[in-house]
Amino acid sequence: MPIPTRTFAEQANRQASRASASNKGGVLDRLKEVLVPRRLLVPRRAREGDAKIAVQRVGHRFGNEVVALDNVSIDVHPGEFVCLLGPSGCGKSTLLYALAGHISPSGGRITIDGQQVSGPSPERMLVFQEPALFPWLSVTQNLTFPLRARGLSRAEAAARAREFVRLVQLEGFEGALPHELSGGMRMRVSLARALAMDPQVLLMDEPFGALDAQTRDQMHRLLQRIWTRDQKTVVFVTHNVREALVLGDRVVVMASRPGRVIHDLEVRLPRPRDPDDEALVHLSRRIREEIGSAEGRGRTAPPAPPSDEERDVAESAPAAGSLPDRAPDPLGARL
């Protein structure tokens, strides 16, 4: 299927312009704000300074020759909240586990603060899809156990555990065991445990996917509040478009077969964000359509020529082994 040449922004501008011609009471001015998403969601622009995380032309093949990642390049700067968004099988969790050091990619290079990732580190905490709590330990003990393992005294670990129990609003449940907590409460304990370790990078693998909608919204508000306070560098994996737009400074959109980046977008919606905000709902619909279109095209659409910046990066980056090169599709400009 050929790639449409008329951009989404152009279509939205035409639609808003036609509406403004009959605008009598100013109501349609608000409609135009919603219909022109270029102010709210734009292609990511290069930033000055060194990246906290540098993913350079990373590829990965599993033993069954499935190509999970193909020529993926992403930079994450300190304090950014980046969401990896895509359908199942697009390689987003594979990339996250490579960032955590649990997977060694087949090709390319991943660095944190200029140092190549060669294994797990307490400076990169991974929050799993399941809370992964010790079932025989209380809420407080689940927090103090890894803190003690890192060398904190009993008093220091206890004080830090109290601080983060308060942060995730679990006062009164310090002595509860995991089976006595709801799913959302267990996930809050998992989040508190990761934050209490004070990692440089927080990696989150669809941590709210199993929660009901109301609890998930509560966790989104909590995580936004914590991130606004601490400005941690976060890489968050999700297949939920609205979740990515609610949480992320950037949304890196991936497609499958093979796993690849098709858009890298900056989100300019003000915080805190409401998943039911009309602008956010509109943007999420357009992103879902683009993901579906990319999945349908697969490899049949010709790749767009790389920009000068992409060409410079490709020439200076290490080779990615035997994996084929492919520049990320710059169709994000249409959103």
On the 0 to 100 scale, the average pLDDT is: 81
Count of separate DSSP helical elements: 10
Backbone CA Rg: 21 Å
What percent of the residues sit in helical stretches (DSSP H or I)? 25-40%
Strand content: 15-25%
Helices and strands: which structural class?
alpha/beta
What's the N-to-C terminus distance? Answer: 19 Å
Low-confidence stretches: 1-6, 8-17, 19-25, 33-38, 300-333
Q: Order the strands across the largest sheet as they lie in space.
A: 1-11-10-4-9-8-7
Instruction: Characterize the overall form.
Output: globular
How many β-strands, per DSSP?
A: 11
String of helices and strands: HHEEEEHEEEHHHEHEHEEHH
Topology:
Blueprint: H1 8-21, H2 27-35, E1 41-43, E2 53-61, E3 67-76, E4 81-85, H3 92-100, E5 107-112, E6 115-116, E7 124-127, H4 139-149, H5 154-167, H6 183-196, E8 201-205, H7 213-230, E9 233-238, H8 241-247, E10 250-255, E11 260-267, H9 278-297, H10 308-316
Parallel strand pairs: 4-9, 4-10, 7-8, 8-9
Antiparallel strand pairs: 1-11, 2-3, 2-5, 5-6, 10-11
Description:
This protein is of the alpha/beta class and 335 residues long. The protein has 10 helices and 11 strands. The strands form 2 sheets. It has a 7-stranded mixed beta sheet, with helices on both faces. Strands 3-2-5-6 form a 4-stranded antiparallel beta sheet, covered by helices on one side.
